[in-house]
Design brief:
This protein is an alpha+beta fold. It is built from 10 helices and 9 strands. A 4-stranded mixed sheet has the order 4-3-6-5. It has a 3-stranded antiparallel sheet with strand order 7-8-9.
Length: 333
């Protein structure tokens, strides 16, 4: 059996470029290169990659929040968001749930990371809404999320990062895109810096409502980021489960808020299977994790718990000698 890559050249189109911003692939690449440099590309390391929940989207955007907070300390003090800024300064961009379950126990650092994950996720939702909702309303067009939330990300990153010469909405008088200005307030010119911090203020206000608390230390991501799990074979609802990750983490956990612009964070997409395979002279080793249900919740034979806690079960792998050997050929293009 032969497998060869097919080169893309000439005028071959790149389909669905707007459906994914590439953060998951980039993070996988980072982890593989890191593992290679440390000579750690083992079966266990592959599991670590599949369960990784670092957000490269957050890593790319939080710097703007911190930069603006430094430039507009007047707004930071006016809106009382100093504590929120301090949390984001110490964040390592991991979207941990922070809510213990089963064998998964979170340490203090991971719980802190989960608080920052909540703040950033609510901020991102609010920022996208502030920047784009007025144009959507004014021009009576669909919100730019018809396919996937990547469309929103591509727009925001474009007006934040690209050269002014490439941004058709760029206004040289104000030094930023006209998308930052709210069309519903013609007498006021909103700017990029104002919108970024205003979204953070809204994130704090809405966080207090979502968590029913002003104590930010209790704002664990898993309290609002939960998976709605339904048994495909039984009509009864299994319930809501606190989960790690987000739209663009390797361990995918996309939410309703991500692409329907709704004020909730119910997970609606994730890995249908995790599997790692190693092959040597002794044979093939296979471990996998499925979000299935082989029994009542919390019983040892419930596969869902393994999947939820990012654990794996070993699978017996047998071959048939009559088919002979399979040869794989990998060729660069």
């Amino acid at each position: 059996m032969f497998f060869r890559t097919i080169p893309l050249h000439g005028k071959n189109p790149y389909y669905y470029s707007s459906l994914d911003a590439g953060f998951r692939a980039k993070r996988v690449e980072e982890l593989i290169l890191e593992g290679k440099s440390k000579n750690e590309l083992s079966l266990e390391y592959m599991k670590k990659i599949q369960c990784d929940v670092k957000s490269l989207l957050a890593e790319r955007l939080v710097k703007y929040i911190l930069q603006v907070a430094n430039n507009r300390n007047d707004l930071v003090k006016k809106w009382g968001i100093e504590g929120t800024i301090d949390v984001l300064k110490k964040w390592h961009y991991y979207l941990y749930s922070g809510v213990d379950h089963g064998s998964r126990k979170y340490d203090n650092q991971e719980k802190f990371e989960s608080v920052a994950a909540s703040i950033f996720s609510i901020w991102w939702r609010e920022f996208v809404n502030i920047v784009l909702s007025d144009e959507v309303e004014y021009y009576n067009v669909p919100f730019p999320d018809a396919d996937f939330p990547a469309r929103q990300i591509l727009i925001i990153l474009h007006i934040l990062e690209d050269s002014p010469s490439t941004i058709t909405s760029y206004n040289p008088v104000y030094g930023d895109s006209d998308l930052f200005d709210d069309l519903r307030t013609p007498d006021i010119r909103e700017t990029r810096d104002y919108d970024i911090l205003k979204a953070l203020k809204y994130a704090v206000d809405n966080g207090e409502k979502l968590f029913s608390s002003k104590d930010m230390d209790t704002w664990n991501w898993g309290k609002i980021h939960r998976l709605l799990m339904i048994d495909p074979f039984v009509a009864d609802l299994r319930g809501l489960f606190s989960t790690d990750g987000g739209e663009y983490t390797v361990n995918l956990a996309s939410t309703i808020a991500g692409f329907l612009n709704q004020p909730v964070f119910i997970q609606v997409a994730g890995p249908s299977m995790r599997m790692v395979v190693s092959m040597d002279k002794k044979g093939v080793n296979v471990e996998l994790s499925l979000p299935g249900a082989n029994g009542v919740y919390r019983k040892d034979n419930d596969l869902f718990n393994y999947w939820w806690e990012c654990r794996y079960v070993k699978v017996k792998f047998t071959g048939d000698e009559k088919y002979g050997k399979i040869q794989f050929i990998l060729e660069p293009y």
